Amino acid sequence: MRIGILSRKGTLYSTRRLREAAEERGHEVTIVDPLRCYMNIAAKRPRVVYRGEPLHVDAIIPRIGASITFYGCAVVRQFEMTGAYTCAESEAIARSRDKLHSMQLLSSEGVGVPITGFARSSRDTKGLIDMVGGTPLVIKLLESTQGTGVVLAQTRKAAESVIGAFRQLDANILVQEFIEEAGGADVRAFVVGGRVVASMVRQAAPDEFRSNLHRGGTATAVKLSRTERNTAIRAARKMGLTVAGVDLLRSNRGPLVMEVNASPGLEGIETTTGVDVAGEIIEYIESHAVEGDHPPAGRKTRKKTAAKTSRRKGTRRAAAEAGAGSVEADDEARDEEE
Questions:
Q1: Pick the CATH number of 97-111+182-262 from 3.30.470.20, 2.40.10.10, 3.90.950.20, 2.60.40.1120
Q2: Is the dihedral of CA 83, 40, 22, 231 positive or negative?
Q3: Which conformational region is residue 266 in: left (phi greater than 0), alpha (psi within -120 to 50 degrees), or beta?
């Protein structure tokens, strides 16, 4: 099977692991920089052209960073038009990136979420703060990732000041209740094909309320309760994602979904739990994608007999193909690991 991994940088842990897992199972893998794709939008023969050559794949694994969501989703959509299977459809990626839309969809499904407020006019700031139960509260930019653009306001004055500052920047924000009983911890449940295949608890660093590992948080493997597993699965399903990282808070009223990530990073979950999550993703694709009759590629990937050799050589090829080390790739790959 020919698999394209849409990623700005082949040496990123998640991209590298996905390539290793696919090649070890005998698949031909191409690392595709989505920003180097361009599209022939035709009624009968839609095509994706990559670096001047038509690209034919049976399946794609989108690793679309938040900073390139619009163009990245357009590329994924074009692959969908060619008949390629994708484990994250374009509409699902766009849906999950919009925090407001996500909260609305999850709440309509009866999935527990933190009390969330949204308003446009600064004259409604007082009512917005009261709506979520007063301070402390959390203020989030609608399209933030990895904990950026997220502020904890301890007092009403601080909340009004932060909301006012965001309003002056014409930024769209959410205001959410602060779940104090979570103790600065959250749960990452990794969902593949309607199953939670791995889970961990992330604990925020001292004097920090965000538990993201990128911000110094620590992680330990955890066994989820049935309610937590079901909540994560329902959340991923409602977003339309077959592969998702669902972030949960443990509250006094049960698990609450903070976010559903369409491009969840593999490094934290694999190193913490020891689960071959990349392999789970590839196996799911194997059971759902259909190999097509495509023209021969310019270069074939040889099947390796030793996993170690595959990983070492695959990393070098990925780096070369995806422009590893370039300033442009570094900047835009940074937010690819949600």
A1: 3.30.470.20
A2: negative
A3: alpha
The CATH classification of domain 116-178, taken from the options 3.30.1490.20, 3.40.50.1820, 3.40.50.12780, 3.40.50.1170: 3.30.1490.20
**Assigned token pair, 289:** 């994608």
Q: What is the token pair recorded at 32?
A: 């595709």
Q: Tell me how far apart the alpha carbons of residues 182 and 250 are, in angstroms, rounded to a whole number.
A: 6
Sort residue 154 into left (φ over 0), alpha (ψ -120 to 50) or beta.
alpha
Closest CA to 214 of 117, 337, 111: 337
Question: For 159-168, b where at least 16 C-beta lie within 10 A, e where not — what string?
Answer: bbebbeebbe
Task: Quote the CA–CA distance of 192 and 295 in Å, as a whole number.
Answer: 31
* Token pair in block for residue 100: 């407001």
Q: How far is Cα 296 from Cα 287, in angstroms, rounded to an integer?
A: 23
Size (the chain), residues: 338
- Terminal C-alpha separation, the chain: 27
Cβ neighbours of residue 70 closer than 8 Å, sequence gap 6 or more: none
Summarize pLDDT for 160-212 with one digit per residue, the tens: 999 999 888 888 889 999 999 998 899 999 999 999 999 999 988 776 666 56
Q: What are 254's two structure tokens? A: 């049960």
Q: Which two tokens stand for residue 65?
A: 């960073």
232: Cα within 13 Å, side-chain hemisphere: 30
At 94-142, the pLDDT tens digits run: 999 998 999 999 999 999 999 999 988 888 999 999 999 999 999 988 8
The two tokens of residue 31 are: 């690392």
